[in-house]
Amino acid sequence: METLPLTGERTVPGIAHENYWFRRHEAVYAALAPRCAGRTVLEAGCGEGYGAELLAGVAERVLALDYDALTAAHVARRYPRVHAARANLVALPLADGAVDVVVSLQVIEHLWDQEGFLRECRRVLAPGGELLVSTPNRITFSPGRDTPLNPFHTRELSPTELADLVRDSGFGTVEVLGLHHGPRLRELDARHGGSLVDAQVAVALGHGTWPADLLADVAAITADDFLLTPDEPAASLDLLVTATA
Description:
The protein is an alpha/beta fold and about 240 residues long. The chain contains nine helices and eight strands. The protein has an eight-stranded mixed beta sheet, sandwiched between helices. Strand 4 (about 100-105), helix 4 and strand 5 (about 125-135) form a beta-alpha-beta unit. Helix 1 (about 20-35) runs parallel beside helix 2. The chain is globular, with a radius of gyration of 17 Å. The termini are far apart.
């Protein structure tokens, strides 16, 4: 299986110790897929491409854009159902009203011009089209900080900040959902010292060998182990905003 190199931030499928992050992202793609059925979809910031491929199973057409040339070329080779290209996300190479849905998961926190990106999303959406954007919840990832802990992130957002940013970019009917651990992941949190994420980060930062029990638990996680709900977005791991053009 062809894979892209790990960067410390990119999520890649098929790697046991990356499975938690892959499934966490896959859960959101799976939840959004019905909203993309039969529609023309733009994924802005497609990364490895597994999400665009999932959406291509239901959408009429999926265009996947990424700023990294290596990534765009990989997606074009590995996922022939997806139309992949390199592009600047604050200058989308699309006509006004060209797509029905814009999907952008775990991307906006990397961008310096978040407002410009959202205005471009609004421009390329047809009237009544949908914006679907996910991002880490700043309150849970970088609590009490003005700058993100993650060096790859430029600005993380709270639920209110995200909703306001989307509204100010011209969108209506804005809703914010939160991604949470389901019952089985909460059991794994308890089993691994209170936080499965912290247990994984400790191994990564320590450059150590993965404990066998932790690796086995991480490798067995599925997308169904996560819950996406409108309840308590402020306490969630990741935020998902939905809005209409």
